[in-house]
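Possible regression after last week's pipeline update?

I re-ran a chain I had predicted before the update to compare outputs. Posting the input and the new output here so someone can diff against the archived version. Not blocking, just want to make sure nothing changed silently.
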Amino acid sequence: MPARVEPHLFVVPGATGDLMRRKLLPALYRMVAETPTRT
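New output (post-update):
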């Protein structure tokens, strides 16, 4: 039986900056998109 995955919260200080827009948001998006969905 697979382990249950708990919800997570990401707090990013300075989230309005250039680094967030160019690097962190695309990385978080890819991470969520590549995570398999459970049925």
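Follow-up from reviewer: compared with the archived run. The chain has a mean pLDDT of 82. Marking as no regression found.
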